[in-house]
Amino acid sequence: MEACNNKPPRTTSGLGPSASTAARTPRRRPRAILSRLVTRIRPRSILRLILLGFALATLPLVVALVTATVYVDRVTAQGQRAIYDSVRSVTSSQMLVEQLTAMERNARQYGVLGDASLLKVYLSRRKEFVQTLREMQGLTLDPRQQDLVRKLEADEQDVYRQVREAKPGPAAAEAITNGFEALALTAHRIQKQSSASVAQAADQLQGAASRAQRLLVWQVAAVVPAVLALAALFIYLIAYPLRQMNQAIRRLGAGQFSEPITVNGPRDLEDLGRRLDWMRKRLLELENQKVTFLRHMSHELKTPLASIREGSDLLREQLLGPLTAEQTEVAELLHSNGVQLQRLIEDLLSFSISCSANPLTESRPIPLQSLAESVIADQRLAIRRKALQPITELDGISVTGDPNKLRTIIDNLLSNAVKYSPDGGRLWIRIRREDQHAVIEIEDEGPGIPSDERVRVFDAFFQGRTPHEGHIKGTGLGLSIAREYAKSHQGEIHVVDHGQGALLRVSIPLAEANA
User: Fold this and answer.
1) Which is it for the CA torsion 470, 474, 480, 485, positive or negative?
2) Number of other residues whose CB lies within 10 A of the CB of residue 317
3) DSSP, res 464
4) Does the 256-357 domain belong in CATH 1.10.287.130?
5) What pLDDT score does 41 carry?
6) Which CATH number is correct for 359-515, 3.90.1580.10, 3.55.10.10, 3.30.830.10, 3.30.565.10?
7) What per-residue confidence (pLDDT) applies to 29?
8) 3-class secondary-structure state, position 492
9) Burial of 88 (C-beta count, 10 Å sphere; 0-12/13-18/19+)
10) What is the pLDDT of residue 303?
11) pTM
12) Where are the domains of the chain?
């Protein structure tokens, strides 16, 4: 967590009550509806919500699969039965024709010769014919075939009576022949109708298959969107509270403690959301206590410091009497350390202000060149004390912002570079334009910043392991304050990977870019 960034977020997220304007209300209605849906479902755990979503998403697929299986089995059974009956009908009709031919031959011989053995053979043939006729009647036939089979049965009964009652002779043979010719004609019509029924059964089977295919297509067209909609709904119901928690944790990590944390979803995640909100309140209390402590401590230190400064100034100016050389050196030491202590206290005050109010207190176009020259002039004594050689490359560009905060950024970076520069070293102060940003770079020839410290060097109170000259150890707030002030100007600051020495770069949008 950053040491200071506890301002309220400028945009609202999906967590907690919405603070957006009325113009954005209609856009949030679907989210509110889904939030109420989550509240109504409200399973006890995220695992139950996942299982419920999986069950509901697979239910339409199972129903569609069962329906398709039943329908296809039914169509298959009907097709098999139709084809079986058609083939049996064709086979039986062929047998009827063959049996009628054999019966006619035996009946005519009996009608001519009157031999009882021929009558016996005829009766045996007739018995097979009747059996075939009964089997054919047991098949599923169309009405025309059924009528022809019944007609064949009735006509055969008449011919059978003629054969039993006939007296052998040419007249009996002729009558029997005429009767069998009528039977043969009916049998051939049955055979032809059976052959046609095979093609008809194939057409019916093809039609049933087409209907089954259309049914499956409609089921897929209806089920797939339903499954996708259910899957999307439960993905949202599962991801929504997780996203709320992720956003809440991100806000806590960014130090934004003002907005309450609310998680809508399963009860275990809602309980976790309440714990996160409790932690947010505790962090907010600790942050307020820290800022209050820094303010009070800084103000309390300034009172005795003022007395020390006044006393050291009286001694330096020898208003209380002449001083020896050693006493003068001590007075100068007290004065310089008092100045350094005052700077440290001012850093604490600036740090507490940056933590409590990052928004700009003043915003107007600021020429960076004149601002940098003013900062360099203010630090000329420190630069002269270490015999440093400042090298300036300043472009005449402007940014929109707070002059005091921009000055503090440059001052903190420059003082940090002066502190770590070796005696007689060089300092580079550059200001240039890069795309739509103003780039401020300050480079020194000091020991540089180790790679493992480049991320933490901007944290408050961080003290690196690089040694530096000076009587009083710094607070580690200078770069932290510079980063907060750069953020308040929508800019950024970072350490540039450089050879020898340290190179810190600040990037801030130009005035015309902000406009």
Assistant:
1) negative
2) 10
3) -
4) yes
5) 58
6) 3.30.565.10
7) 59
8) strand
9) middle
10) 65
11) 0.42
12) 58-223, 256-357, 359-515
- Please, which residues have CB within 8 angstroms of residue 144's CB and are 6 or more apart in sequence? 193
Q: Which CATH architecture has domain 58-223?
A: Up-down Bundle (1.20)
Max intra-chain CA distance, the chain? 179
Spell 465-491 as b/e; 16+ CB within 10 A means b: eeeeeeeeebbbbbbbbbbbbbbbbbb
Asked if 463 and 473 touch (Cβ cutoff 8 Å), the reply is yes
At 5 the pLDDT is: 45
Whether the pLDDT of residue 439 is over 90: the answer is yes
Q: Output the DSSP codes for 308-349.
A: HHHHHHHHHTTTTS---HHHHHHHHHHHHHHHHHHHHHHHHH
The values of phi and psi at residue 428, to 5°, are -115, 125
Domains 58-223 and 359-515 share a fold: no
What's the pLDDT tens digit per position in 106-162? 777 777 777 778 778 888 888 888 888 888 777 777 788 788 888 888 888 888 787
Closest-CA residue to 187 (of 237, 142, 151): 151
More confident residue, 512 or 129: 129
Ramachandran angles phi, psi of 258, nearest 5°:
-80, -30
Nearest to 295 by CA among 254, 362, 355, 358: 355
**Percentage helix, strand, coil, to 5, in the chain?**
70, 10, 25
pLDDT value, residue 353: 62
Q: Across all residues in the chain, what is the average pLDDT?
A: 77
Query: If you search the block for the tokens 């006890």, which residue do you land on?
Result: 44
Give residue-wise pLDDT tens across range 179-198: 788 888 888 887 787 777 77
Cα 333 from Cα 415, distance rounded (Å): 19
CA atoms within 13 A on the CB side of 33: 7
Span 84-105, mean pLDDT? 80
Element (H, E) at 509: strand 503-509
CA 82 remoteness from chain centre: 53
The per-residue pLDDT for range 14-39, each reduced to its tens digit, is: 334 433 333 444 444 555 665 565 55
- At 462 the three-state DSSP class reads coil
Both tokens assigned to 494? 């970072």
Q: Which amino acid is at 388?
A: L
Fill in the amino acid letter for 275: R
Residue identified by tokens 């995640």 is 269
What is the C-alpha end-to-end distance of the chain, expressed in Å? 33
